[in-house]
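Next up, a specimen:

>
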Amino acid sequence: MVREPSVFIRLEGKKGMSPTRQSIQDSFRASKSQVIGTTKPVDVFKVLMKITLVFCIVASISLIYYFSLSTQSRWFGCQQCDRGFGRSSYQKITGAGGDVGRTGYERTNISHILFGIGGSTGTWGERRRYCELWWKPNVTRGFVWLDEKPAENDTWPETSPPYQVSGDTSGFKYPSWTGSASAVRLARIVKESFELGVENVRWFVMGDDDTVFFTENLVAVLGRYDHNQMYYIGGSSESVEQNMLHSYGMAYGGGGFAISYPLAAELARVLDECLDRYYLFYGSDQKIHGCLSEIGVPLTRELGFHQVDIRGDAYGLLAAHPVAPLVSLHHLDLVQSLFPSMTQIESLNRVITAYEADPARTIQQTICYDFSRNWSVSVAWGYSVQLYPSVVTAEELETPFQTFYTWRSWSTHPFTFNTRPMSEDPCERPIIYFLDRVEMKGINRQILTTYKRLGFSPDRDCNNSRYAPLLAVHSFNVSAFQLRPESWEKAPRRQCCEVVDGRDGVERSVIQVKIKECSQEQILSPASDRNTNSHTVEAASKVMTWAGARLQAGGHKMSINCIPCVISWWI
């Protein structure tokens, strides 16, 4: 039986077969046709069913094996299996309805943030004034973490955040010869905040009791990130000395930092053991950074978090703010008042007045030129205006004046950003105006901010004739429409402005400035005025051509007297 097919094949391939071979072949064909002829459709169906059943069994076993290895905790209820290094069992918030952000979830709002403010009973009475500038009861969520419970006869202010008392940290390693005794306690605020189990939290935001947060902008910044991923967001120090001493890669706690829910879950699991490994580190923020390095999550830098590790006058830093939303300010007790002839709290209240009208635009720099008078104007919206008697490049204007010193040594350098000197000679510096008031104009809610000279001495003004027209300007009126928070989801670009009444060259005591989005081809350069004029003439020519065609189509002729009208209408 084994050899018959091979014999048949050999016979099949030869010509002139004998009768014996022919009979063998005929008998084989007959048996083959008989077998085929007797096969029933039911038998074929049974075979196909068996093959299908075997395939399904194999596929099912493969799927069960795959899922049992990849997501064991979800299929079999293992509570510890999903808590391996680099993964956290966290609550994934998908949101239901509402405004959907770029990450596909309900857009992040202030209710998704839980603040952890590091404080103490000894300093809260003085420093709470900073926290109460931004804290909104029943809106913002979080706690001030104190080293001990306040005295029974002390009534906790309703305008302050509620407080929690930190847990005992006496069992942790700590060298008495370096750092702050509260560093371990403050570092554990992240863990203790997470373990409170507050619902619907996407971000844990840490700060000091003298940190001023601009919460609308904080929400805008955090809303750009997927809160279901591990994120560590904040800013570095402005001081090279501080960064070299501590770390360039960490978020400084005074400026505040944000940790997403899944990262907070993982950090809470490993923090206590980790703190003992980094007991030699000075501050709580440096200890947190060390532990996050073990998890493998680097710092995501945002330029709006300000540690303010500088001494002296912070004016130069704020008047040339980077193109990023203002998120926080710190160390405000250790720098001069932001406004002349005011206390620091009065100064902050004035900035916050502008912030409440247009949060996204606060402190944002805008640059424009008055070419008829060869003036340059730099606006830090909601704070200050600088007026220059010459055309200054945008690159120079966006570089902060060095009105401050280094944090540790009170030196003139170095900083983590470029600076330019502020001359003592009044003829080599701009005339500076500070915010005076904020108004909402018209039904379209246009915002008008007015800036005046504050705290200046006339005897210190420049006597040069070139400065005389500038000294005649007593104030600036700056108009702008509210900048939508969603604008920060786009690629950053500084907005443009124009001196509205600058074309006639007439001296005025009040200068009108209008802020608007830059056009697609608009640039800021001393040559841009000529470019703008050429574009205007070209555009006016196109309008005249269009208008002439429309008039001729109606059977009319366009008089040359209409040309100035069309040009003036276009401009």
